[in-house]
Design brief:
The chain is of the alpha+beta class. It contains five helices and 16 strands. The protein folds into two domains: 150 residues, Rossmann fold, CATH 3.40.50; 96 residues, Elongation Factor Tu (Ef-tu), domain 3 (Beta Barrel). Strand 8 and strand 9 form a beta hairpin.
């Protein structure tokens, strides 16, 4: 797959918008390819929260055109021995640190190819050990946008760092043992259970932090018996979510990412 001359580059970081970091990254990209379109996914990822960024990227990458280059920088290991990488997966490109940030993409797109970025001629001159987003990932993303092949950036690797597998555990009695993989701005608890894992959601119950949830809803205001009634709903990212109408399910459950979720009959 070779990108067109002026594709989209997305940016996903934990930089926030109060400092110069984001502007510097965009400036480097535009210096190399002034014709590229830059789209911000988010820069409000909690600092150093790799799993949160991995979920956000998974939830939206397919909404972008084929050939989009996703530069993702949540990089607590910047300057260490962790590798900078570029990945081709699902007709998209991903550039960032090899710390598990692309794990969920690799789970969904098993025919991916990953490359260790070692060819320094594609980096910014004088690489800062504390700002690889500007000095490595931005210029590499821009180089790909101008047609550079991943093979020109460094050797292929087959041992990219992975987070815990995204799929829930399936027990012999039909029970699913999953977990909360994200809590959104509204307090909805997003689990790792998909429609493919749970073909028939009715007559199932969820157990989370000692609370049993039996209600399944089609939308947030559907048939809620009380304002504090917890229910399950299929979210827009394709995962089963635990919600409460006009409130925070996470607060009611005292839930956090990683908490166990059991789905049983």
């Amino acid at each position: 797959m070779r990108v067109e001359a002026s594709p989209v580059i997305t940016l996903l970081t934990d930089f926030g918008t109060a400092d110069y970091f984001l502007a510097a990254v965009k400036g480097v990209i535009l210096t190399i390819n002034p014709q590229v379109s830059i789209v911000d996914i988010t820069h409000e990822t909690p600092p150093q929260d790799i799993e949160s960024a991995a979920f956000t990227l998974l939830a939206c990458y397919r909404d972008f055109p084929t050939g989009t280059i996703h530069v993702a920088v949540v990089d607590p290991g910047v300057g260490s021995a962790r590798r900078p990488i570029a990945v081709s997966a699902g007709d998209h490109y991903f550039v960032g640190p090899d710390n598990g940030l692309f794990s969920y993409i690799l789970d969904r797109e098993p025919s991916y190819r990953a490359f260790h970025l070692t060819v320094e001629s594609h980096f910014r001159q004088s690489v800062s050990p504390s700002f690889h987003g500007r000095d490595i990932f931005a210029p590499v993303g821009a180089a790909i946008s101008r047609g550079t092949e991943l093979e020109e950036l460094g050797p292929q690797i087959r041992d990219a760092v992975r987070l815990a597998p995204l799929a829930p555990e399936k027990l012999q009695n039909g029970t699913l043992r999953g977990r909360i993989i994200n809590i959104d701005h509204f307090g909805n608890c997003i689990t790792n259970v998909t429609c493919a894992d749970l073909l028939n959601a009715q007559n199932r119950r969820l157990l989370v932090n000692g609370r049993v949830i039996k209600a399944f809803r089609r939308f947030f205001g559907d048939k809620s018996e009380s304002k504090d009634e917890l229910f399950a709903i299929w979210g827009s990212a394709g995962f089963l979510e635990i919600s409460v109408n006009n409130g925070s399910a996470a607060a009611l459950l005292n839930a956090k990412r990683g908490d166990a979720v059991t789905v049983s009959e």
